[in-house]
Amino acid sequence: MAGVRLSAPAGRWLVFTTVLGSAMALLDSTVVNVALPRIGLDLGADLPVLQWTVNAYMLTLAGLILLGGALGDRFGRRRVFVTGVVWFALASLACGLAPNAGVLIAARALQGIGGALLTPGSLALIQSVIHPDDRARAIGLWSGFGGVGAAIGPFLGGWLVDGPGWRWVFFLNVPLAAVCAPVALRHVPETSDPQARGRFDVLGAVLGAAALGLVTYALIAAPQKGVSPAVVVPAVAGLALGAAFVAVERRRPEPMLPLSIFSSRQFSAVNAVTLCVYAAFSGFFFLSVLDLQVVVGYSALAAGTALLPTTALMLVLSARSGELGARIGPRVPLTVGPLLCAVGMLLMTRAGAGAVYWRDILPALVVLGMGMVVLVAPLTATVLASVDVGRAGLASGINNAAARAAGLVSVAALPLLAGMGPEAYRSPDAFADTFRRAMPICAGVLVLGAILAWRTVRSDALERAGADVGAEAVAEASAEAGAEAVAGPEGAEAVAPAERAKGAERAARPPCRPECAYHCGVSAPPLDPGEQRPHT
Questions:
Q1: What average pLDDT does the segment 327-356 reach?
Q2: 503 burial level (CB within 10 Å; 0-12, 13-18, 19+)
Q3: In the structure, what pLDDT confidence band is assigned to residue 530 with cuts at 50, 70 and 90?
């Protein structure tokens, strides 16, 4: 396929449907946190139920997102994307209709499966369908509209919770899917990877998800059940399944998670930083929205609106942050960014009873937002730059799954570490005390991430990647030209014209900038309450 131009109707329809599909998952991740206190009151649920309302979704999404990308490559990216959209909508409907907490949690797990199918497909469709000359602009539009959706998500969620009710947070996805799926089927061409073959690593996906699920269960149950068989057995079983997952991935010929990619010390280091950063972010946003409503006394709408400064800063400044990271290298941003975020989280301990927004809450969110601006774009760039370009999609998928897994464990473990009991969120005084203990824990994890970045991330990581890509392009073009020369005039026909053109194009193309997500059709890890990806 030569590629669809963005100016053509098919190109515009493609961007529209991928933005709409991604908006479903993005909005869901930003608005559900705002609805948690009302969900708990309406269903008579304790804190562990609220934790599972968040974690059931992240569990299946983190465990299956790599498998979802592989399914799209094999069976068709449009087909799997549309399947994910429909699946997500039906699961959302089940969430909205849930008569009790158990049904809601099960439906949230089903939502995660739908998210694992549609999330990898949106950018993969743009990468495989849009003409290369228009791909950067298409990703820019996708990212820009996604950022706007992220910005309005908490505000919209608060309005729905205070208005028609928390169930409409989930019902909202149904009309979005009713538009998205037919448009995709009618206007988006099907693409797949003809080289994708072999068996799917279903065993690896099941082992990974089961290990995360059992460890999460143990962490959430521990405050109520203490050190008992009901906690110890799942914890040990989860760790054993995690070891089995590593063993299976090491031995399978086509694993879901090729462990060889971690032979890059830079890739391993950046993923360790990712684990620290997104563990802190997930714990912060989970607890801060509860704190604003339970302790400070905000409505759901006011709590969602209160968090907008972080999103606004990300929307306005992330592109410049990507340029700065490319100029000075990622080491300093990946060190300074987490430290700024840590300061912001410590300042958030002032958000107690009687807090004044402009004096006690806004400064914390501004400092946190600036830290996120400094951190997120260079983090993504370094992930992509730490592996060969041919494995950039896999690298981004692994980093995405790592961010989800970090958030999953954080939401499960942070209340336990802070001494937050099952009924804590029902008492403003009790929740305020534990919230003030939780924020230093999040800040400490960020400081650990900053130390890891300073000691392990190279300042020249992005420059080396660009040089390597450029050298690889010239080498491949030279090899193809040499093959034609050896073949001679009569044997020149043996070298396909398409391959010669491809080699010439590679040689003429300037080194791809690793901070640009569009060059391999992948994106940064998801970030609540929203993100803006840098692009050229």
A1: 93
A2: buried
A3: very low
Residue from 68, 304, 75, 67 nearest 207 by CA: 67
- Is the dihedral angle over the CA atoms 313, 318, 323, 324 positive or is it negative? positive
Q: Which two tokens stand for residue 434?
A: 């534990």
Residue 454 burial by Cβ neighbours in a 10 Å radius (0-12, 13-18, 19+): middle
Residue 433: pLDDT above 90?
Answer: yes
Q: Within 13 Å, how many C-alpha atoms sit on residue 390's CB side? A: 2
Q: Is the pTM of this model over 0.90?
A: no
Nearest Cα to 389, choosing from 322, 446, 469, 485? 469
Which stretch of 47-51, 179-183, 385-389 has the lowest confidence by average pLDDT? 385-389
Distance CA 57, CA 510 (A): 41
Higher pLDDT, 465 or 195: 195
- What's the CA gap between 196 and 112, in Å, rounded? 24
Burial 165-200 (b: 16+ CB within 10 A, else e): ebbbbbbbbeebbeebbebbeebbeebbeeeeeeee
Which DSSP string do the residues of 344-371 spell out, in sequence order? HHHHGGG--TT--IIIIIHHHHHHHHHH
Helix, strand or coil, per DSSP, at residue 4: strand
Residue 460 pLDDT > 90, yes or no? no
330: tokens are 């990622």
Please answer whether residues 123 and 524 qualify as being in contact, where contact means their C-beta atoms are separated by less than 8 angstroms. no
Confidence tier at 168 by pLDDT (50, 70, 90): very high
Q: pLDDT tens across 207-227, in order?
A: 999 999 999 999 999 988 888
Give CA–CA dist 343/340, Å, rounded: 5
Q: Taking the mean position of all CA atoms in its chain, how far away is CA 425?
A: 27
CB 449 within 8 A of CB 406: no
Q: Under a CB-based contact definition with an 8 Å cutoff, are residues 304 and 157 in contact?
A: yes
Distance (Å, whole) CA 237 – CA 25: 31
Beta-ladder partners of 4 = 130
Instruction: Report the distance separating Cα 196 and Cα 94, nearest Å.
Output: 34
HSE-up (13 A, CA, CB side) for residue 270: 35
pLDDT at residue 145 is higher than 70: yes
Helices (H), 130-197: 132-162, 168-171, 173-187
Where b means 16+ CB within 10 Å and e means fewer, 114-135 reads bbbbbbbbbbbbbbbbbbeebb
Cβ-in-10-Å burial (0-12, 13-18, 19+) of 247 comes to exposed
